[in-house]
C-alpha cells in the first residue's frame, strides 16, 4: 500500500507536507473524525485528497462556492484523478447521469454544494455508492456563531447521521473556540481529533493608518512598497473609481467584482497573477482559491465586518514567507457607518417579505408555483426596478436563505453542454433519412468524443467555423434537436441564480428570534473589529490571534504598535513622570487609550504609549471590554 508521502509525490509532485498536513491525514486514515484549522494558503485540500486516494470508495466533498468547486475538480482532473462537481447550476438529467457514473465507480471525488444534500433523489443514488470519506470545506459555515453562517450547511448534519460509520474531515482557515466546538457538535464527531496550526503569520506587518484622505494614502503605499498588491473596498462602484485614481497616479491597477462577466473576471485575474497588472482593487469576491504567494501588501479601505474576514483577506499577503504589509485605513468618522451596516444587513421582517414578493414577481413566479426551479437573477436590475439598494437586496436574499425560503448561487460561468439522448441505432436511422441531420451529427461526433456517454462542453463558435455557418445557425440547430428530444442541449450560463425551495407563498413569516440572534452575533463581531482598530496598547498580531484563542503569542516586532514602542526609549525619570501623569488622569476621568493620548503634546505620544503599555502589561492598569482604562486599586 502506498504511503501518504508517496501519494503526495506521485500526484502533486511535492516532497514534504506542510505543517499539520501529515498529522491530519494520519488521523483520517485511522478512522477519526477530524477537524483541521489551517491558515489561508495552508493546503487544506491536500488533507482530504491524499487520504481519499488511499481509501476504497468515493470521497464526497461539500463546499459552498461553485468557483472553488470547479477549480478543484479541474485541478484533480489535470493530475489524472477522476472528479466531478454537482452544483445548483446543473440540470437534473446531467446530474442523474453523473450520479449513475459515480455509482458505477467512475469518480473518486464527488464535489457537491450543500443544497444537494436535501434532495431525496440525490440521497437515493448515494445509497448504492461506497463512501470512503466525507470532507467539509469552509466548515465554519455550519455554525451560527461563525462569521459566515450558511443555513444550507445544516443539511450536512442530517446527511452525516445517514453515514455514521464513515469518517468526517472538517476544514477551515479561521474559527473561534466557540465555533470549533459547534462544528464538532453539528457534525456529531466521534473519536474526534482537532488540529490547530498557529494563527501567527510572523512575516505580516499589521498596520492601522488613521488618515483624512484614504485614496492618497493608498497611492502612497502602492508607490513605497514594491511588488503585487490587493486593495479591498466595500462596493463595486468603488473598485472602478479607486482603480482609475491609482492609474492616474501612474500605478498599474485594475478592478474586480462579482458583477463582471466571466470572461472579464478570468482575464483580470490572470493578468494580475502573471504580473501584467500590479494592483487589484476589488470587493471580497476576489482572492478565494487564488494561489499567488508573492503578494507584498493588502490594503483595506474600510473596516471588515469581522476579524475572521480580516484575517482571511489580509492573509492573502506574504504566502511566500517574505515580509508583507496588511494596512487597514481608518478615518475618525468611519464608526458612524456601523449603524447603517447593521440596518442594511438585518432589515425588518416586513422589508424582507416585500423583497421576497418582489423577487417572485420579477421572475414571473405565480403564487403556489416555482418550487426547485432555478432562475437567472440580475440583482442590480431588480434593485433598480424596485427602488432598493443592491446591498440591502443581497442581505435580504441571505436572510431568506437562512429561513429556508430560497437558495442563491453566485454568478459562475458554465459552458454550453450537450449529450445525445437517443441510442446509436436511432441516430443512424435519423442520419439515413435526413442528410442535414447526417452532416450535423457527423460534425458533432468528430468534434466531441464521448457525447453519447456524458454531457460534453461544446463551443458553438468553433462548430460554426467548421461547418462554415454562423454561430446563430448552430445554436438554432442545437435547439431544434433539443426540442425534438434527440439531444439534451444546455446553453452556457454566466448569471447568478435563485431557486425557491418551496412554491411561492402569498406571504411569509420570518423567524424574528433567529433574526435577532444573528443580528446580535453580527454586532458583537463589529465591536471586536472596533476594539482592534482602536487598540493602541497591544501588538496587533498578538491581539488578532488572541481572538482565535491563541493567548501565548509573542509580540511580532513589526506592526505599528511594536514599532512605536521601539522608537520610544525612556530614561527612568522620564518614565516615572509619565506614569504619574497617566495615573492622575485615569483616576479622575473615564478614558480609553485614544483619549489618553490627548493629554500630552503630539510629539510625546510615542513615549506616553510606551509607558501605558508597560502599565497594562504589568497589570497596574486594566483595559475594560469597551477599551475604558482603570487604575488597579491598591490592596491596602
Give a short overview.
The chain has 636 residues and is α/β, with parallel strands linked by helices.
Describe this structure in words.
This protein has 636 residues and is an alpha/beta fold. The protein folds into 5 domains: 4-196, Rossmann fold; 204-332, 3-Layer(aba) Sandwich (Rossmann fold); 338-410 and 495-518, Winged helix-like DNA-binding domain superfamily/Winged helix DNA-binding domain (Arc Repressor Mutant, subunit A, Orthogonal Bundle), CATH 1.10.10.10; 417-490; 568-636, Arc Repressor Mutant, subunit A, CATH 1.10.10. The chain has 26 helices and 22 strands. The strands form 5 sheets. Strands 3-4-2-5-6-1-7 form a 7-stranded parallel sheet, with helices on both faces. Helix 2 (21-29) packs parallel to helix 3. It is globular and about 105 Å long.
Amino acid at each position: 500500500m502506498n504511503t501518504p508521502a508517496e501519494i503526495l509525490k506521485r500526484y502533486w509532485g511535492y516532497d514534504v507536507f506542510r505543517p499539520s498536513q501529515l498529522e491530519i491525514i494520519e488521523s483520517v486514515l485511522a478512522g477519526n473524525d477530524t477537524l483541521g484549522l489551517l491558515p489561508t494558503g495552508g493546503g487544506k485540500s491536500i488533507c482530504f485528497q491524499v487520504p481519499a486516494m488511499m481509501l476504497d470508495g468515493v470521497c464526497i466533498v461539500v463546499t459552498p462556492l461553485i468557483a472553488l468547486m470547479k477549480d478543484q475538480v479541474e485541478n484533480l482532473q489535470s493530475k489524472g484523478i477522476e472528479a466531478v462537481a454537482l452544483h445548483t447550476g446543473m440540470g437534473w438529467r446531467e446530474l442523474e447521469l453523473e450520479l449513475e457514473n459515480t455509482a458505477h465507480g467512475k469518480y473518486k471525488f464527488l464535489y457537491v454544494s450543500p443544497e444537494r444534500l436535501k434532495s431525496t433523489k440525490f440521497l437515493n443514488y448515494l445509497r448504492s455508492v461506497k463512501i470512503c470519506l466525507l470532507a467539509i470545506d469552509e466548515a465554519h459555515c455550519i455554525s451560527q456563531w461563525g462569521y459566515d453562517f450558511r443555513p444550507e450547511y445544516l443539511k450536512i448534519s442530517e446527511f452525516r447521521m445517514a453515514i455514521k460509520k464513515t469518517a468526517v474531515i472538517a476544514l477551515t482557515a479561521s474559527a473561534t473556540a466557540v465555533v470549533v466546538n459547534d462544528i464538532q457538535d453539528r457534525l456529531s464527531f466521534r473519536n474526534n481529533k482537532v488540529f490547530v496550526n498557529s494563527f501567527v503569520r510572523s512575516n505580516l506587518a499589521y498596520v492601522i493608518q488613521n488618515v483624512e484622505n484614504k485614496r492618497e494614502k493608498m497611492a502612497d503605499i502602492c508607490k513605497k512598497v514594491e511588488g503585487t498588491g490587493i486593495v479591498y473596498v466595500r462596493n463595486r462602484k468603488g473598485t472602478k473609481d479607486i482603480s482609475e485614481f491609482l492609474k492616474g497616479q501612474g500605478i498599474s491597477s485594475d478592478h474586480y467584482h462579482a458583477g463582471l462577466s466571466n470572461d472579464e473576471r478570468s482575464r483580470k485575474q490572470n493578468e494580475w497573477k502573471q504580473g501584467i497588472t500590479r494592483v487589484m482593487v476589488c470587493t471580497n469576491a476576489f482572492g478565494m482559491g487564488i494561489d499567488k504567494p508573492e503578494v507584498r501588501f493588502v490594503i483595506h479601505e474600510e473596516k471588515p465586518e469581522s476579524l475572521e474576514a480580516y484575517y482571511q483577506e489580509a492573509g492573502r499577503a506574504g504566502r511566500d514567507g517574505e515580509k508583507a504589509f496588511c494596512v487597514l485605513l481608518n478615518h475618525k468618522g468611519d464608526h458612524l457607518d456601523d449603524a447603517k451596516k447593521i440596518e442594511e444587513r438585518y432589515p425588518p421582517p416586513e422589508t424582507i417579505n416585500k423583497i421576497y414578493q418582489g423577487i417572485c414577481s420579477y421572475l414571473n413566479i405565480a403564487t403556489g408555483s416555482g418550487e426547485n426551479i432555478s432562475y437567472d437573477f440580475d440583482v442590480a436590475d431588480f434593485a433598480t426596478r424596485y427602488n432598493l439598494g443592491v446591498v440591502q437586496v443581497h442581505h435580504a436574499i441571505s436572510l431568506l436563505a437562512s429561513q429556508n425560503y430560497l437558495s442563491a448561487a453566485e454568478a459562475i460561468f458554465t459552458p454550453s453542454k450537450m449529450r445525445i439522448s437517443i441510442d446509436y441505432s436511432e441516430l443512424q436511422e435519423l442520419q439515413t433519412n435526413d442528410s442535414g441531420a447526417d452532416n450535423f451529427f457527423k460534425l458533432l461526433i468528430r468534434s466531441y468524443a464521448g457525447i453519447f456517454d456524458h454531457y460534453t462542453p461544446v463551443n458553438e463558435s468553433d462548430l460554426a467555423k467548421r461547418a462554415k455557418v454562423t454561430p446563430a445557425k448552430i445554436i438554432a440547430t442545437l435547439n431544434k434537436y433539443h426540442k425534438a428530444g434527440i439531444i439534451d442541449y444546455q446553453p452556457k450560463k454566466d448569471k447568478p441564480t435563485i431557486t425557491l425551495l418551496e412554491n411561492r407563498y402569498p406571504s411569509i413569516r420570518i423567524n424574528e428570534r433567529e433574526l435577532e440572534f444573528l443580528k446580535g452575533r453580527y454586532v458583537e463581531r463589529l465591536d471586536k473589529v472596533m476594539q482592534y482598530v482602536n487598540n493602541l496598547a497591544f501588538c496587533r498580531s498578538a491581539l488578532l490571534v488572541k481572538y482565535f484563542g491563541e493567548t501565548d503569542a509573542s509580540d511580532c516586532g513589526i506592526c505599528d504598535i511594536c514599532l512605536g514602542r521601539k522608537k520610544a526609549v525612556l530614561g527612568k525619570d522620564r518614565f516615572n513622570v509619565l506614569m504619574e501623569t497617566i495615573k492622575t488622569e485615569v483616576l479622575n476621568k473615564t478614558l480609553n487609550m485614544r483619549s489618553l493620548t490627548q493629554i500630552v503634546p503630539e510629539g510625546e505620544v510615542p513615549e506616553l504609549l510606551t509607558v501605558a503599555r508597560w502599565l497594562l502589561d504589568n497589570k497596574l492598569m486594566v483595559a475594560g471590554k469597551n477599551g475604558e482604562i482603570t487604575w488597579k486599586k491598591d490592596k491596602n
